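Folding Task

Wanted — backbone structure
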Amino acid sequence: LGADTNLYRSGANELKTDDNLTIGGLLTVQGVSAELTSGTASPTFYISNASATDTYDPTIAFRTGASPTTKQSIWLDDSDFDKLKFGLSSATYPVLTLGTDGYALFEIPDNSATAMEIKEATNSYLTFDTTNGAEKIVFGKDLEIGLMNVDADSGAVNFVNMDISTSAPTSTVESLSIALDGTAILTVYGESSGVAGTLQNARVGIGTTTPAYLLDVWGTSRFGSATSTQVVFGGYVQSDIIPYADNSYSLGASGYRWSNIYAATSTVGDLVFGNDFRITESELPAVAGLYIQNAVGDKLMTIDERGFVGVGTVTPARALSALDSDSPQMRLAQTDDSSYSDFQVDALGNLTISLSGDEMIIPDDNLKICSGGACPAFAGLLGNGNLVVENDVFIGGNLVLGDANTKTGVFAGLQATSTLATVDISGVKGNNPVVRRVSVYIDGDPGADTNVNCRLGFYNSTSTTENNLITDYYFNLTYTETDGGANAGETTDTVDATAGLAKYDLIRYLGGTAENIRLVADPSDFGLTFTALAGAHNDNTGVARVAEITNLFQLYDADGTNTIHAKLENLSGLNNAVNINMIIELQ
């Protein structure tokens, strides 16, 4: 068609040109499988209204060699919802698929270290590695993402991993940090061991990028949200536990208490208070215990394993031992220490009790002072409020006794040997009365010198028979007439208290025989006191001696009949009648 175009028909369905062809208008190719090619047997470029497998898949294909496997194609796939696909050919899987609804799909080859890459010049930003068994996506630059979720029920997920190469030097830091605004919050830390690409010193740091422990937290931390939240520590604390502020926090609470607190034996000051006082363990190897020490280390109090408490001593010998050589070891005080009782033991073991008041009272109890390890049995005490002294009692001042009941007997006109009379003392001071004093004397003037031998008995019976005798006393009463004056013409005599009087002691016995004993010493040492009206006396009035029993003794109503009686007997015949008075004081 024209000499210049060399456009000619070649075959039944081909129109060819051997030179360049310029078309100024619309080129229309008709036919189901029409193609527009570069005109060679293996064209490097062609356009077809049908693919190799589908009549209705328009295709644009490129290739650089004779083999069709190197061809790259773009085609429209009417069998896949008219998706536009890019790939090696329509007969193979596409690399890129675009749908009419915005759908996009990338498919990359299997088992390839660089199945897909995104680069800036030669700098790789993103690489897809499909190497079998080691598939991964490699980011060559910083990655900024939003919320990242892991599929539900994914099981144990190895979330982030950093390999350690065999060429990494020993102690090279290998760490991963999660940061906010450039500040690392959580760091997973490790160091290369230098052996076969292994790791050492694996740790986690919160608030630090160089953790020194398996978990190292810097800054204020909180475990649990309330007392109902359990926090469990399975290991051991290897450092001091120090509160953030002084005197601000508690260890436990009234309803949340520790069951046991154990302190080390070798630590001095196991429990230290704000004033530097402390509770420590005993240093004594034989007896375990606790010390309470002051700020300079003095051991103020000791409690040992026996329950013994020592104040001022670390070796208490009793349940409570107080040691102080300079001042009283113990004070019992009332309110403000102005009223007190001090107890002090001296170097000889003597006890001194010093009272700020005036009285030492033992209410509703007995006081016993005994020699040796035990007090003798004394069954006759009435109730409480009694004092028992095993040996002597020395009283430097006056002895004042309480109120007593008095029973008297007056025996008149006595002359012949006979029983004088009895005095009923039953029930005066209970069944077991204490006799405080007995006085017997000749009353009145018998008209001549008189000597009366007497027996005073106490009986647990109204019949006063000898089988009911509790105790008895023998003594002598005398009356001495004055001689009409010491000198001629005098009308009064001066009579000595005991001059010219026979001295007899009381003989106390429980059954058996007793007799008068003449004494040459003052009989008061034996419990019997003789008195007379010493001084000036009118002539012919006489002087009577009073026999007194002043030793306390108790009468026991063994059968509980409450029938104790006192009986006075005359044991001698008298030349003239006499009157005798007897006074008995009972307490």
About this structure: Residues 494-540 have pLDDT under 50 and may be disordered. The chain is about 0% helix and 35% strand. The longest strand covers residues 469-480.
